[in-house]
Each structure stands twice: as C-alpha cells, then as structure tokens.
Design a protein that fits this description.
heterodimer, B: alpha/beta, 5-stranded parallel sheet, 3-stranded antiparallel sheet
C-alpha cells in the first residue's frame, strides 16, 4: 500500500511539473507579487525589511492557491477518481498522498525561492532564515487546507476562483502565526518559538483533518 | 465465484432509472447488459462496482459485498494522463491495484501497442487510448470485469483482440459484465435487457 501511495504522490508531483508548468507558474507569480510590492510602497528599505516577511507570506499564500482547483478535477474528468475508489486504497490516504505530491511540486519551490526573493526586499539574514523556516513549516498546511476546498468543488466544472474564496478564510491562522514567528526575529517583543510551534501544530492538525474532510467531500461528489 | 444482484434499483436526480433487477453470473460467464440509450446500463455497472449506492437491493460476490475490491471498471473515460507516457500510465495503475498481472510491456503487446510504449498518452488516437485502457485490465489481476461499451472506438481487429482477451479471462474463471448496444465480440452467456425507464 505504501508503494501505491508513493506512486500517487510521485504522479501528482510529476504531472504538475510536466503538465501545464504549474510549479513554475506559482514561482513566477510569487516573484511578480514580491517585485511589485516595493513599487507600491516606495523605496523605504527599513519599512520593506520590516514588512518583508509578511509580503513573502502573502505571496506564498496566493501562489499556493493557484492551481489547487485542478488537484482532483483532472482525476474526476478523466475517470481516474473512479479507479481510486475501486482500488481499495483508503480514500483519506489518497487525498493525503495527492496533497503531499502537490506540495512537493508547488509548495517546496516557493520555500526554495523565498530566500532569493527576500533579498529583493532587503530582509536581513537572520529574519530571512526565519521566514524561510516558517514557510517550510506552514505551506504544507496551506496546501492541505486547499485540498479540502479542491475536493469540495470537484463536482463543479469551474471551481478555480471558488476554491480560493472558500479556502482563504481558513488559511488566515496559518498566515497570522507564520508572519508573527518570522517578524519576531525583526521587531520583537514576541519570541520566535511560541508562534512557530503553533504554526507546526496547525500543519499537523490540517494533515489529519484535511484527508478526512477531503475524502468525505469526494465520496459525496460521487452521488 | 458468483456475482449476484437482487432487487437492484437506482435513482438519479429523483428519477428512477431501473428498479427490481436481479441477476447472477458465475465464474466463466459473461452477462451482456443491453438496452437503448438512457436505460441505465452505465448506472447498473456503476452500482455493481460500488461507485453509486443502490436505492434498493444489494450486489454480492460469493455472499460478501466487497465487489469493488475484486472488480476492474472500464468506463467511457480512459483514465489516462496525456502528459505521461503510455508505459508510465499503465505502470501507475499496476501499482495502484496491487495485484500484479502481466508486465505492462506484455500487456501493451497483447493490445498491439508495444511500439508506442514511450509516447505521451496525449497524442494517441481515441481507439489507441481505448486499447491502453483495455491493457489496464491485464496489468493487474481482478476476477470481475465491468465493461461499459468496451468496443467504442475500436477497429475490427481490436474488437477481435478484445474478444480473445475476454474469452481468456472467462476461461481462467473470471466474470464479465458488459454494457453494450452493439454485438459483443464473444457470445454472451446471458443477457439482461434494461427497458427505457417509464
């Protein structure tokens, strides 16, 4: 069974890399957000360095939501979803395996790009490390929460914007604790660790809740 | 092995598609589901596969109700990813279904596509995709085949090939349910005809 789930993870990652270039679109979008913000805010380096982690987080949040709607839609459209039902694999684990694959192809590149983009915002090395660490810990939660939205909208054909609107409110706690942990290393007085631990907890909770909720949504979509 | 259904009914969108249908198929037998468009052939197959809950009745395999775990489903969708090669597609389903049958290359050879193994599935013709979907039934072994219009898009040579594969599967003690409105390439053991729902 582990082999089958690894195959699902691998295929999901491979398809988003090889298919419509989902991973690169996400990184390019991330880059666009980060590059545009300084033009809007002005060339105040101190200000940029202070709000830099927040900009990176917001950029990563939107980039993650891009392309999430296809996560289950493609499998439903080509009949793969039916075969997953018949495979006898627990659907919860199928959802988790797909979310992991999606994160590897779309979330991980964002984490890797973050330190480079952070330089554009003039973030100091220590906070830059902190924000990258929080993204590594927090973006899986974004993908997992997004997977619930993707499985809920699988019955509609055009779920794109709907997924983003549905999912966005539920990602706010992740954003809040991710940004506060990262900002703690710049402004204080909050220490880094407590919000970071809560961020980890959010990721762990969503790793449990998202597969169960996603599988339930997919089952009801079969009706 | 014996696949049986009793008092089966299906309701879709508040409309009764069929009601009180019963059948039994034993090892080595093929049941043909016939009927005009909209008579519920596909719905019947999906209910048997467990993809749709029946409104009434039950489907059992040897008295147990885990038909899904023993069934291959060949629907009108081919479940192929255009961006992956033919071989990658087959290999994936082989790993998902976890009961090894023929190696993917041998299965492709049986459906006459061995030369195309390394091509992306997206560039295949409809008939070739159908052949790959049929090869999927071979790469992992499951005793019950649920085939929905299996001959769609196939040329006459491929129809004969499918007939031979079905005959082989039946000879090995398999069970086949085929929904079709065209003659099957093998003689059906029995026919269940679904009338137009009133």
């Amino acid at each position: 069974m582990i082999g089958a789930l690894a195959a699902i993870t691998g295929r999901t990652a491979l398809l988003s890399l090889r298919g419509s270039g989902g991973a690169f679109v996400g990184v390019v979008f991330f880059l666009a957000v980060v590059v545009v913000v300084p033009f809007g805010i002005g060339p105040d380096l101190n200000l940029l360095a202070r709000i830099g982690p927040a900009i990176l987080w917001i950029g990563a949040l939107f980039a993650t939501l891009l392309g999430l709607d296809r996560l289950f839609q493609d499998d439903r459209d080509d009949g793969s979803l039916d075969l997953f039902f018949l495979s006898g694999l627990p659907l919860e684990l199928v959802v988790l395996a797909k979310a992991v694959g999606h994160w590897l192809a779309t979330g991980l590149p964002l984490v890797i790009a973050a330190p480079v983009l952070g330089l554009l915002l003039g973030i100091a090395p220590l906070p830059l490390g902190a924000v990258t660490l929080t993204l590594l810990a927090g973006t899986p939660a974004l993908t997992l929460i997004g997977a619930i939205g993707a499985s809920l909208t699988v019955a509609f054909n055009r779920g794109g914007l709907l997924v983003a609107v549905l999912v966005l409110p539920f990602t706010i706690p992740v954003l809040v604790f991710g940004v506060s942990a990262a900002s703690a290393t710049i402004v204080g007085p909050v220490p880094f660790l407590p919000p970071f631990l809560i961020l980890l907890a959010l990721t762990l909770v969503s790793a449990v809740v998202a597969p169960i909720a996603g599988a339930a949504a997919l089952r009801s979509s079969m009706e | 092995m014996r696949l049986s259904a009793s008092g089966l009914a299906a309701v879709r969108g508040g409309r009764t598609i069929f009601a009180d249908r019963s059948f039994a198929v034993a090892s080595g037998e093929i049941l043909a589901l016939t009927g005009p468009n909209g008579s519920g052939k596909t719905t019947m197959l999906r209910v048997v596969a467990g993809l749709l809950p029946p409104a009434a009745g039950a489907v059992t395999l040897d008295g147990k109700d885990d038909v899904a775990q023993a069934a291959h489903f060949l629907g009108y969708l081919d479940a192929l990813k255009p961006a992956l090669t033919v071989l990658e597609n087959l290999d994936f389903w082989r790993r998902i279904f976890r009961s090894p049958g023929l190696p993917p290359l041998d299965a492709l050879d049986r459906v006459g596509l061995a030369d195309l193994a390394d091509l992306p599935a997206g560039i295949l013709s409809a008939g070739q995709k159908r052949r790959v979907a049929i090869a999927r039934l071979l790469v992992s072994h499951r005793p019950v085949w649920l085939l929905d219009e299996p001959t769609t898009a196939l040329d006459s040579e491929a129809e004969r090939m499918l007939g031979a594969l079905i005959a082989e599967h039946l000879k090995a003690g398999g069970i086949v349910l085929a929904a079709t409105h065209r003659p099957l390439p093998v003689a059906a053991s029995a026919t269940l005809s679904l009338g137009r729902a009133a």
